[in-house]
């Protein structure tokens, strides 16, 4: 290994780069950490929830706010609906994106450029909110999970990324399989898909995070309170500051602690973030490889 001696100017530049990266890391992590501290702090006048300054550690570590959130039925209803939406959306999106991208990866496909141009067109132009709502209504999909899953089931960007990844697979593998008598379906399911785990995991992560965080389509298409997503429940608590449901839970369980609205808001925010924090480390190892190969190969 060759050690290259850096000049004074290079060291100064490296110093400023590290400072900028440290500031960016702090700006990214501190809002998350402050919510963790507030959600874990005890009730009382000295609680971090009442502090307007820098929040580092809780004054009194307690999990009472999380115990309270476990008894909040609306939160778990939103959890259930969002988990069903995310799981269904990821499975359908991966399946239909893959069967769309695989034919486009074949350069000898008739009208390949025309089909690709139609897909690119959807990245630049959309129908708009009102026409989309009227279409969903005419299809009788209002107040159903399909109104949240089907419209974004196939994303043009995801198709292009997956198509480019499929093109990076050597043609010799498919040719040898065809010599042995395998058809396109068998090649796709037994050769292409097993080799495409990085890009499949990457697309699954993008689609899953998108469905988990989505709220606007649920607000438009879903009017039944029992079918609302988790993000709509959080919106009512945080943005609309609607604490009536949580206060009724406090009275129902006879909790004598005086939780502030900010503490309970931080707790439900943490409940919404935890699933993504658990899933992401298992997919991260595929993420960079899937993005790089899918973006570079053409």
TrEMBL record:
<dbReference type="InterPro" id="IPR035906">
    <property type="entry name" value="MetI-like_sf"/>
</dbReference>
<keyword id="KW-1133">Transmembrane helix</keyword>
<feature type="domain" description="ABC transmembrane type-1">
    <location>
        <begin position="79"/>
        <end position="280"/>
    </location>
</feature>
<feature type="transmembrane region" description="Helical">
    <location>
        <begin position="117"/>
        <end position="136"/>
    </location>
</feature>
<dbReference type="Pfam" id="PF00528">
    <property type="entry name" value="BPD_transp_1"/>
</dbReference>
<feature type="transmembrane region" description="Helical">
    <location>
        <begin position="86"/>
        <end position="105"/>
    </location>
</feature>
<keyword id="KW-1003">Cell membrane</keyword>
<feature type="transmembrane region" description="Helical">
    <location>
        <begin position="12"/>
        <end position="33"/>
    </location>
</feature>
<keyword id="KW-0813">Transport</keyword>
<keyword id="KW-0472">Membrane</keyword>
<feature type="transmembrane region" description="Helical">
    <location>
        <begin position="148"/>
        <end position="166"/>
    </location>
</feature>
<dbReference type="InterPro" id="IPR000515">
    <property type="entry name" value="MetI-like"/>
</dbReference>
<comment type="similarity">
    <text>Belongs to the binding-protein-dependent transport system permease family.</text>
</comment>
<keyword id="KW-0812">Transmembrane</keyword>
<feature type="transmembrane region" description="Helical">
    <location>
        <begin position="264"/>
        <end position="283"/>
    </location>
</feature>
<protein>
    <submittedName>
        <fullName>ABC transporter permease subunit</fullName>
    </submittedName>
</protein>
<feature type="transmembrane region" description="Helical">
    <location>
        <begin position="187"/>
        <end position="209"/>
    </location>
</feature>
């Amino acid at each position: 290994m060759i050690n290259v001696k850096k000049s004074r100017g290079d060291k100064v530049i490296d110093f400023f780069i590290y400072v900028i990266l440290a500031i960016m890391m702090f700006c990214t992590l501190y809002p998350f950490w402050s919510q963790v501290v507030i959600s874990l702090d005890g009730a009382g006048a000295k609680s971090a929830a009442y502090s307007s300054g820098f929040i580092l550690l809780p004054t009194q570590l307690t999990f009472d706010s999380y115990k309270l959130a476990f008894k909040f039925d609306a939160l778990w209803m939103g959890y259930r609906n969002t988990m069903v939406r995310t799981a269904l959306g990821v499975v359908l999106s991966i399946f239909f994106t893959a069967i769309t991208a695989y034919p486009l990866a074949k350069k000898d496909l008739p009208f390949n450029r025309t089909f690709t141009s139609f897909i690119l067109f959807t990245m630049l132009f959309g129908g708009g909110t009102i026409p989309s709502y009227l279409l969903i209504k005419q299809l009788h999909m209002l107040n159903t999970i399909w109104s949240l899953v089907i419209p974004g089931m196939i994303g043009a960007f995801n198709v292009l990324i997956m198509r480019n990844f499929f093109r990076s697979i050597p043609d010799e593998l498919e040719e040898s399989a065809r010599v042995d008598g395998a058809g396109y379906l068998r090649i796709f399911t037994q050769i292409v898909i097993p080799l495409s785990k990085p890009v499949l995991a990457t697309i699954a992560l993008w689609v899953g995070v998108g469905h988990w965080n989505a709220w606007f389509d649920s607000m438009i298409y879903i009017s039944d309170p029992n079918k609302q997503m988790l993000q709509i429940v959080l919106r009512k608590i945080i943005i609309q500051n609607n604490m009536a449901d949580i206060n009724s839970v406090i009275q129902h369980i006879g909790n004598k602690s005086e939780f502030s609205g900010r503490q309970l808001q931080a707790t439900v925010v943490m409940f919404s973030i935890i699933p993504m924090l658990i899933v992401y480390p298992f997919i991260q190892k595929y993420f960079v490889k899937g993005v790089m190969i899918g973006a570079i190969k053409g």
